[in-house]
Amino acid sequence: MAFKDRLPTGSHYRSALLMDRELAEEHLEAEETLGEDDVEEAPSGPRPEGYTLDTYLLMAIIDALQGVQATIIAAAGADPPAVRPLPRPMSALEIVREDRREASMQTLIDLFTAPPVPDTPEELVDDIDDVDDACW
Fold this sequence. Notes:
The chain is mainly α. The protein has helices at residues 12-19, 21-34, 53-75, 92-112, 121-135.
């Protein structure tokens, strides 16, 4: 990792990157040429660097205040907003564990759902041939 990538979020370097119009245009052009399906999703939530006890406590206060706000709104007779805690940093272990859990759940869903219906008669014949080949 380069030293420039370790600079704090509020540094002049990071600020200059965020405000660079040419970089923003290049980034948008790359997104448009790749399409939404080709863009790799980055892990959501903040990175663990800089996450201290102070940060944790401030996030806990914000989460508690959101709960109090929802309670006051509900007491006034209105529909309270959903209280969502602020995202906490995730380690690579937690990300991999979540990916495996999602894959396991998808496998379970696939087990109990019907296979897709072929769109054309040719696809149906191909599916029957695949089953015959697997049986022999």
